[in-house]
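User:
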Amino acid sequence: MSGPPFLLVITSDPETLNRVAGELERRYSPDYEVARATSAQEAAATSERLALDGRLVALIISSLRLSDGDGWEAMAFVRARTPAHCGYMCESRLCPSMVHLRGRDVCQA
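Assistant: Predicted structure:
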């Protein structure tokens, strides 16, 4: 494994993707690298590339609804293919502050 772990942001909305990924880059660089995906398919390809390189994914942040699938399924795919990570969150339109971290739903509203 080489290089810092990744924070992966998955959403089909370009404005949200740029805002969230940009803020993560400003806040956590150089300790983490930020990867962006605009679809479940792109997230799968990114996770395959990271797995081949032996890179860690420290956090996955995803929209529930993606242009080509489901955010939960995309996160499960990434988790199954990349080395251990610390947690994941899924944006919810019903509760914007709902996060799913280490197998538990937590609403911070």
